[in-house]
Design goal:
Length: 303
């Protein structure tokens, strides 16, 4: 049966660990995995992208496959052709599909009606490829995952939702702090709490950033205005106190806390320029690891 990757919880805990380990291996052996030999992978983007698009294109090439970038607005989807038909057509040409779009339901439908693996390259609800490479980056940096505490500070968006599932699945403790009214998706919270219970990890959701960062090994943030929310810039005023600055960093009570960001960053909003630069090495390693983690993921999906 074909495997899709729509949410990080499509993977079992052991599978995440296996993919992360393999991603670390591929980082040292770029062209060693030729799983995509003679395979054509379509990449439909309905939103902009720098990291996801380029890392998938390069990764597919390094694995012997053909990446085909498809700008969403150039397809008949933009003229109303339904997802069900698009999925059935593309399944006849392609061996896999990477999609970045708005509604998560759209990608679920695409996966349902196509016979080929579908990979979520970001929806309004989830960004599982980013989480996978972040887990890999944390493992690479700390040499372990279990017992570390990650504090997600900011908007309850796709990144927050994906951390709610990805943290317990990778044995990380998680605190999510958002302003009131910007809490993460309710279903993701419920699923995250269940996973935390099953894997015996700590998961907390609060509106208090100082409380959330206490004892954190990692502070994680993302933009306050996500793609598709460009008309909602007014919301920024509600995020006072949620900026990652030296004051908030000092509240962890730890000297060696690191700061991570999925990028792109809006410096001066969710993070100050000096904190961004202080942790730029780890932040750009996160970006680099998109390539290696996604290659390991594709190898897993076609196994
Ligand atoms: N982090 C991330 O997904 O970046 P892009 O939007 O540039 O792909
Ligand atoms: N929350 C951001 C993530 C970008 C990688 C967005 O959806 O725009």
């Amino acid at each position: 049966m074909k495997k899709d990757f729509l949410s990080i919880s499509d993977l079992k805990r052991e599978e995440i660990f296996e993919i992360v380990q393999y991603g670390l291996h591929l980082k040292e052996h770029k062209f060693s995995d030729r799983t995509l030999d003679k395979k054509s992978i379509g990449m439909i983007f309905m939103k902009p992208s720098t990291r996801t698009r380029i890392s998938f294109e390069v990764g597919i090439y390094q694995m012997g496959g053909q990446p085909i970038y498809i700008q969403g607005s150039s397809t008949q989807i933009s003229r109303g052709e339904d997802i069900k038909d698009t999925a059935r057509v593309l399944s006849r040409y392609l061996d896999g599909l990477v999609i970045r779009t708005f509604s998560h339901k759209e990608i679920e439908d695409m996966a349902h009606y196509s016979d080929i693996p579908v990979i979520n390259a970001l929806t309004d609800l989830h960004h599982p490829c980013q989480i996978l490479s972040d887990i890999m980056t944390i493992k690479e940096y700390f040499g372990k995952l279990e017992g570390l505490k990650l504090a997600y500070i900011g908007d309850g968006n796709n990144m927050a939702n994906s951390w709610l599932l990805g943290a317990p699945l990778s044995e990380l403790n998680l605190s999510v702090a958002t302003p009131q009214g910007y809490e993460p998706n309710g279903k993701a919270v419920a699923e995250g709490l269940k996973l935390a219970d099953r894997y015996n990890t700590h998961l907390e959701i609060t509106n208090n950033p100082e409380e959330a960062v206490k004892d954190a090994d990692i502070i994680y943030t993302d933009v306050w205005v996500s793609m598709g929310q460009e008309g909602e810039k007014d919301k920024i005023k509600d995020f006072e106190g949620f900026q990652i600055d030296s004051n908030l960093l000092s509240k962890t009570g730890k000297k060696d806390t690191i700061v991570m960001h999925c990028l792109p960053a809006h410096k001066g909003e969710e993070i100050t320029e000096d904190i961004f630069e202080k942790f730029s090495d780890i932040i750009f390693t996160q970006a680099e690891n998109r390539l290696h983690a996604q290659k390991a993921l594709m190898s897993f999906l076609y196994k």
